[in-house]
Amino acid sequence: MDAPLLDFPYIDPTQKNEIYRDKLVSLLSNDLDFHNKNSGYSSHNFHSFPAKFPPQLPRKFIEGLTNPFDVVLDPMMGSGTTIVEAFLTGRRAIGIDIDYLALLISIVKVTPFNRNELYTIGNKIIDNARDLANNKRNQLNKLFVEKWDPLTKQFINYWFSYETQIELLSIITQIEKLSDPKIRAFFEVVFSAIIITKSGGVSLALDLAHTRPHRAKMVITKTEKFILNENLEDISPHRLKVLTKILRSALEEFDKRFKQNLESMVQVAAENIKPFIIAGNSQILPLRNDSVDLIVTSPPYASNAIDYMRAHKFSLVWMGYPVGNLSKKRKEYIGGDDTINVYFEEIPENVKEVVATIGRLDKKKSHVLHRYYSEMSRSLRQMFRVLKPGKAAIVVVGNSTMRGIDTETHNCLAEIGRMVGFEVPKIGIRKLDRNRRMLPAGIKINVNSQIQQRMHEEYVIGFYKP
């Protein structure tokens, strides 16, 4: 006797796409702020990173629009928030970025480690580094002379006190001795995390979230020893307090940080699939057509409003990257302000009008903005190519202001997306929690500050590939 046929209701593909599309609109219409939520779980708090979105944001769309083992892509992954969330939820994650530090951080955040092994190695690094700093300074001084080119030495001497240089050198020499590349990468991230913070970490910088870091005018050690005291005559007491920094010991900060990171290492089931993390450019994605189930990403601001490399070189120089090479690398980033040898794309008419409006006030700035929209045109075209039909790309963007003119980034990118083939059924809005984001602006909106005008809310664009 034949088994009875199961009577599953037939769903027309068009109807199925409408259901997905409605789900996308619903998710974009819900609360996207995620204020008062814990964003430091798992490995998300391994390292500060400018303007990263809360992990609840990618998780919302990953869980709402994909199934386990689906492919989730972030082609401008930054510190890997989307990648970690895709990994934790059992998806196949692919992360791509051009930034050396972003790649290092993201790889470490999704690597399972043996906590006891790292604890033993970390304590050994601290003990050996402390012995070097206290008893073998001549050896470290010689290493400083040999390790860097003149331009990199000049950078280090300007931004780091001598005592901090000694301690950082003593730590990084111990990290470089580690033979296991995964364990070495873990401690490199710890090392970087004590330098790159909004407060400038153990450097002489006041704030590494700013486009251009500022060095403290007065620096005091924990023992109240003055190590920097310059040009103070015309500075008011209130202003001097703002420009004063208490410098912490790099050895003590490294010791605290590595133990903090140990407590928040990624915990995943054995069946979770290891993410693919690739050095690359979102304008040329090394992926097949129609191979991705969901994209969640956040591109840079236009005109280097948040300049990643200006901050990242503070730790990368200690890992062997010459400062001159890092400055050249910076020119490759999306949103850069170098317009020489740039291919400008044809852009939609209303986007042209925004660029032209800026151009009537500042020709150079209009070229910079046209470069940004050209680079994002190429990136969106690649996203459209690799995304499966009937799937979505979630793009989180902030607006920029140039010469007092709103660049209308979300509207312009939506128009560019339509030009390359996407539908844009909904653009969500999220208000930023300025107390918790590494951003270069204060909590209160100052209408006279251009950098503050553009960094108090973000737009979450829902692109749908029909």
Query: What strand order characterises the main sheet?
Result: 6-2-1-7-8-12-11
CATH architecture label of the largest domain: 3-Layer(aba) Sandwich
Number of domains: 2
Cα distance, first to last residue?
Answer: 44 Å
Total DSSP helices: 17
Query: Could you tell me the radius of gyration in angstroms?
Result: 24 Å
Given the C-alpha coordinates, what overall shape results?
Answer: globular
Q: How much helical structure, as a percent, in the residues?
A: 40-55%
The main pleated sheet reads as: 7 strands, mixed
Q: Report mean pLDDT, rounded to a whole number.
A: 87
How many strand segments?
12
Question: Based on helices, strands and strand pairing, what is the structural class?
Answer: alpha/beta
Could you name the CATH topology of the largest domain?
Answer: Rossmann fold
Low-confidence stretches: 441-454
Any idea of the CATH class of the largest domain?
A: Alpha Beta
Q: How would you describe this protein?
A:
The structure is a single chain. The chain is α/β, with parallel strands linked by helices. It folds into two domains: 14-30 and 38-98 and 290-464, Rossmann fold (3-Layer(aba) Sandwich); 115-263, no CATH class. The protein is 44% helix and 14% strand. Strand 1, helix 3 (81-88) and strand 2 form a beta-alpha-beta unit. The longest helix has 24 residues, at 363-386. The chain is globular and about 75 Å long.
